[in-house]
């Protein structure tokens, strides 16, 4: 079984802070990690490989530093890694990202393509389905359990009030949720092997044979035109006196903030 | 591009019941359509769902497109993508909005890729700019930033909308609109996934670390009976119960509820501290909450220093009144 | 000159830190309270290939470098110092002498399962009457046909009782001092070998410090490690390396205290502002951070020398001396900064202070380190 896993290197958003003066993200000192649910995808791919044999290939699109994420994936047990890296890819929205990934994946053999449900920096959950459409294969999103039956998969897909059981023939694209498994830590031996015995292949736009107009900012239908920071200061409104008035004031504030 | 007009809402129904989020988005679509002077249209997909069309008109739709077929009974990516793309390709809406649900977030990106247009996920606000473009506003980086996104050159402009943030229109029994039935072109072979079963399952109780809303009690709660009140408030809000070390050590509640240095570290969207003074060990565990509400008798309690909102008063009077007020507010929102 | 870690080493630190923070740190307080031996941690480390990092893959190791191993000891110790010393004693004191002096057969039989983490190792030199004066050990080994007979006892043996394989030092020639000592590989089940008293300790309470008793203990002849009379040299060279491990353990403890303090002074408010805004505390923190950084440089300098086959006896002693004293100083300051809270078990700094103390004592006291350093300098 040949499995492709798309991963993204993201800043650990639990440690992201906003500069109170410039109102921009402080990236300095914020560790980069493999997006958590991409790790669930990778873990599942490695488990399937361990059980049924085959090969796990990890792909990411990003700057040169994203090589670190691929090395970590190799240390966890992936066999091959591709870093799609080119100035032309910068500024891509989910549509252009999916286009770039699809162009690479079309060059490879695969039975399964895995993505994480969504990335913690963007929270869009869009690249998976957009990629499936570009590849012309079916998709199952929000996956929490996978069983293999011959050339088909029996997959549990999460819904708001339960789950559905779906049968689908390979090749197929799946997006993994954290319910799917607990990712392993890369073993120390795996780290040494990832750096000494395995390779990260860097692929540029021209090597990919893709029109620069179709990728990156130029190939993105959407544009971010403004960013602002939400109120971070504590409002510090203290109500005293008549109980009824106090609670009315409080509930009104909470409703305004969509907390109720 | 000028041939594209109207604002569409993909309407979700489950077992022939309209989902709230679709009505919320319809309310917003109505507002945007009025601003642009175009029609707000609902796209209702399913099997034997035509009966729901009238309700959509009462909630603000000018036109309801009903796409009814046995093969559309349950949601499948392939079938729904096909029928909606077919319709959109022929009628050319300027905007399509979807709920950011487990269905909407599966469907919308698939459609966006097929129609080669842009898509913005999980919007919390929408607007129309001076050029008539849809402003799609959403949080990013774990809520640390708010981004405004446009889709200037491709059509339709598409977005998924977070459930619970838009306001439903007031129901207007006298509203008139048009119901148009669409004959979909769909065959079994178009659908590559097979739904074997759909299982309903109560969501397991969320743990403190994952809860969006936590109501915590401290020494001021006075005893195990007091925690019943805390539980009641948590239930009304759909949250879970937390506690300070003092309350746990007094034996009023089990230690798995404890928040703080020796307990759990939590980052809910809303943290309500009742009868908790705000010792440093406690704040170490909950200081990362997005919004903090404190209810305490003592106006000098340190918890008020880190609170967004506070009520100085006896929690045995404040909490029951608060529960009533929240129920009221929820009733109003439902109506 | 280059002070940077390789990308591979950076990855080791990142992975071990995440592992330690999620898997090891949450248990540290409980392990300290109960004094139980953390078998779960040992198993988890074995699963992550941490029990034989610097040894070749053919001998069951991870095939890595010595600096990566030291990084691992530091990061594990930052989370739980007791678990840190289990790892360090196993890797530096039990695996190393077999790797360095063992025959091919001994390596296959003992190093492979040790480095894989299937078995745990220990190093037994200290005796009731031979601590700092290690040449004065009284345990004897007498060759009788195809085996040696060991008699005597060892104390304060790290991993004692928990370990499967012990490197035991005994006198094969009582007429000689240091030159009469030989090293043996002793298995847990050998007849005549038993575990005596297990010490109740002040710190690193999850680790074992046990008495080993040898009463006509039968050790096969082929379990002699190195040659007869080489034991003292084996012990001293092994301890040189062990000291880098303990230096790393001390560094981990000191870093943990510094991290706790950094967090606390931003949270704790007095006189209407975080106490970190007061210059008095800022100076404390600057001093602590500087010492921790100096300790780090000494520890990794010694590790780098060992990695590059340069002499490292003196550098290891300096690293251990300075890192352990820094750990003691920084943890004591941390308790002071935390004030009354620091003296309670609600916060980890009191545990760090108790854990730090042993690093000034075991694998050679601070005074022994000074002897080593002075003799290297004076060469008298």
Rounded to the nearest angstrom, the distance between the terminal CA atoms of chain B is 39 Å
| Percent helix of chain A | 25-40%
Give the radius of gyration of chain A. Answer: 21 Å
The total number of structural domains of chain A is: 1
Question: CATH topology of the largest domain in chain B, anyone?
Answer: Rossmann fold
Report the end-to-end length of chain A measured between terminal Cα atoms. 48 Å
Characterise this structure.
The complex is a heterotrimer of chains A (260), B (335) and C (380). Chain A has 260 residues and is of the alpha/beta class. Chain A has helices spanning 36-52, 67-76, 94-105, 127-135, 188-196, 205-208, 243-256; strands spanning 2-6, 9-11, 17-18, 25-26, 32-34, 55-61, 80-84, 112-116, 139-149, 152-159, 162-169, 172-176, 200-203, 223-228, 237-239. Chain A has a single domain (2-214), classed as Rossmann fold (3-Layer(aba) Sandwich). In chain A, the strands form three sheets. A nine-stranded mixed β-sheet of chain A has the order 11-10-9-12-8-1-6-7-13, sandwiched between helices. Chain A has a two-stranded antiparallel sheet with strand order 2-5. A two-stranded antiparallel ribbon of chain A has the order 3-4. The N and C termini of chain A lie far apart (48 Å). Chain B has a seven-stranded parallel β-sheet, sandwiched between helices. A five-stranded parallel β-sheet of chain B has the order 15-14-16-17-18. In chain B, strands 8-9-10 form a three-stranded antiparallel β-sheet. Chain B is elongated, with a radius of gyration of 24 Å. The mean pLDDT of chain B is 91. Chain C is an alpha+beta fold. In chain C, the strands form three sheets. Chain C has a four-stranded mixed β-sheet. Chain C has a four-stranded antiparallel β-sheet with strand order 2-3-7-6, with helices on one face. In chain C, strands 9-10 form a two-stranded antiparallel sheet. The longest helix of chain C is centred in the middle third of the chain and has 37 residues, at 231-267. The mean pLDDT of chain C is 96. At the A-B interface, strand 3, helix 3, helix 4, strand 9 and strand 10 of A face helix 3, helix 4, strand 7, strand 9 and strand 10 of B. Chain B: FAD binds at residues 219, 244-245, 258-262, 275-282, 296. Chain B: Keywords: Electron transport, FAD, Flavoprotein, Transport. Chain B: Residues 7-195 form the Electron transfer flavoprotein alpha/beta-subunit N-terminal domain.
């Amino acid at each position: 079984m040949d499995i492709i896993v798309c991963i993204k290197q993201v800043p650990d958003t639990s440690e992201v802070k906003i500069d109170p003066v410039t109102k921009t993200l402080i990236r300095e000192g914020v560790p980069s990690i493999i997006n958590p649910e991409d790790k669930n995808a990778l873990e599942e791919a490695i488990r399937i490989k361990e059980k049924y044999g085959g090969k796990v290939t990890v792909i990411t699109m990003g700057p040169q530093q994203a090589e670190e994420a691929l090395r970590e994936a190799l240390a966890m047990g992936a066999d091959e890694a591709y870093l799609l890296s080119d100035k032309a890819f910068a500024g891509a929205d989910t549509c252009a990202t999916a286009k770039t990934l699809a162009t690479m994946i079309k060059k490879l053999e695969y039975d399964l393509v895995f993505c994480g449900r969504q990335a913690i920096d963007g929270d869009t959950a869009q690249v998976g389905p957009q990629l499936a459409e570009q590849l012309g294969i079916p998709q199952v999103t929000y996956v929490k359990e996978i069983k293999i039956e011959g050339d088909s998969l029996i997959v549990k897909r999460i819904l708001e009030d339960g789950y559905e059981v779906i049968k689908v023939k390979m090749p197929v694209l799946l997006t993994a949720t954290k319910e799917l498994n607990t990712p392993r830590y890369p073993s120390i031996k795996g780290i040494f092997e990832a750096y000494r015995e395995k390779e990260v292949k860097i692929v540029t736009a021209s090597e990919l044979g893709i029109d620069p107009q179709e990728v990156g900012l130029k190939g993105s239908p959407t544009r971010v035109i403004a960013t602002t920071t939400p109120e971070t200061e504590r409002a510090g409104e203290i109500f005293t006196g008549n109980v009824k008035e106090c609670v009315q004031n409080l509930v009104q504030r909470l409703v305004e903030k969509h907390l109720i | 591009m000028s041939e594209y007009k109207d604002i569409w809402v993909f309407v979700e129904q489950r077992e022939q019941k309209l989902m709230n989020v679709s009505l919320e988005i319809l309310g917003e679509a109505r507002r945007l359509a009025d601003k642009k002077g175009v029609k707000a249209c609902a796209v209702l997909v399913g099997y034997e769902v035509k009966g729901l069309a009238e309700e959509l008109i009462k909630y603000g739709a000018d036109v309801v497109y009903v796409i009814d077929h046995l093969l559309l009974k349950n949601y499948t990516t392939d079938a729904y993508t096909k029928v909606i793309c077919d319709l959109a390709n022929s009628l050319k809406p300027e905007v399509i909005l979807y709920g950011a649900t487990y269905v909407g977030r599966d469907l919308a990106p698939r459609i966006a890729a097929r129609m080669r247009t842009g898509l913005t996920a999980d919007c919390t606000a929408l607007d129309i700019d001076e050029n008539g473009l849809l402003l799609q506003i959403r949080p990013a980086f774990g809520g640390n930033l708010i981004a405004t996104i446009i889709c200037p050159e491709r059509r339709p402009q598409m977005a998924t909308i977070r459930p619970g943030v838009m306001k439903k229109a007031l129901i207007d029994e006298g509203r008139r609109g048009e119901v148009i039935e669409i004959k979909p072109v769909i065959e079994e072979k178009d659908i590559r996934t097979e739904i074997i079963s759909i299982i309903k399952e109560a969501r397991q109780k969320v743990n403190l670390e994952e809860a969006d809303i936590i109501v915590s009690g401290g020494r001021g709660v006075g005893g195990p009976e007091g925690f019943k009140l805390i539980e009641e408030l948590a239930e009304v809000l759909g949250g879970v119960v937390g506690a300070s070390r003092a309350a746990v050590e007094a034996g009023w509640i089990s230690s798995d509820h404890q928040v703080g240095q020796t307990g759990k570290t939590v980052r809910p969207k809303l943290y309500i501290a009742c009868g908790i003074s705000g010792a440093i060990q406690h704040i170490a565990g909950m200081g990362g909450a997005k919004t903090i509400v404190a209810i305490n008798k003592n106006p000098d309690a340190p918890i008020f220093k880190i609170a967004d909102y506070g009520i100085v008063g006896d929690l045995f009077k404040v909490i029951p009144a608060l529960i009533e007020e929240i129920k009221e507010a929820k009733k109003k929102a439902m109506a | 000159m280059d002070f940077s870690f390789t990308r591979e080493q950076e990855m080791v630190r990142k992975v071990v830190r995440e592992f330690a923070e999620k898997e090891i740190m949450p248990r540290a307080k409980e392990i300290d309270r109960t004094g139980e031996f953390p078998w779960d941690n040992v198993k988890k480390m074995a699963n992550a290939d941490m029990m034989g990092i610097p040894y070749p893959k053919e001998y069951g190791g991870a095939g890595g470098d010595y600096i990566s191993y030291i990084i691992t000891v530091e990061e594990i110790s930052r989370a739980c110092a007791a678990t840190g010393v289990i790892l360090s004693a196993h890797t530096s004191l039990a695996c190393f002498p077999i790797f360095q002096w063992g025959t091919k057969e001994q390596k296959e039989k003992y190093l492979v399962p040790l480095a894989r983490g299937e078995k745990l190792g220990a190093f037994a030199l200290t005796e009731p009457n031979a601590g700092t004066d290690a040449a004065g050990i009284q345990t004897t080994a007498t060759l009788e046909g195809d085996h040696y007979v060991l008699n005597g006892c060892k104390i304060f043996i790290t991993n004692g009782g928990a370990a499967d394989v012990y490197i035991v030092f005994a006198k094969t020639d009582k007429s000689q001092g240091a030159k009469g000592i030989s090293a043996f590989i002793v298995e847990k089940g050998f007849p005549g070998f038993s575990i005596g008293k297990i010490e109740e300790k002040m710190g690193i309470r999850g680790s074992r410090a046990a008495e080993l008793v040898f009463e006509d203990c039968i050790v096969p002849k082929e379990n002699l490690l190195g040659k007869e009379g080489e034991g003292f040299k084996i012990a001293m060279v092994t301890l040189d390396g062990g000291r880098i491990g303990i230096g790393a353990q001390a560094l981990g403890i000191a870093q943990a205290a510094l991290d706790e303090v950094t967090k606390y002074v931003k949270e704790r408010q007095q006189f209407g502002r975080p106490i970190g805004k007061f210059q008095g505390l800022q100076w404390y923190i600057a001093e602590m951070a500087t010492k921790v950084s100096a300790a780090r440089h000494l520890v990794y300098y010694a590790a780098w020398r060992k990695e590059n086959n340069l002499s490292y006896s003196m550098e290891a002693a300096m690293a251990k001396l300075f890192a352990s004293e820094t750990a003691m100083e920084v943890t004591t300051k941390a308790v002071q900064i935390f004030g009354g809270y620091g003296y309670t078990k609600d916060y980890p700094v009191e545990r760090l202070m108790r854990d730090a103390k042993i690093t000034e004592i075991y694998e050679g006291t601070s005074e022994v380190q000074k002897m080593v350093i002075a003799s290297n300098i004076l060469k008298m």
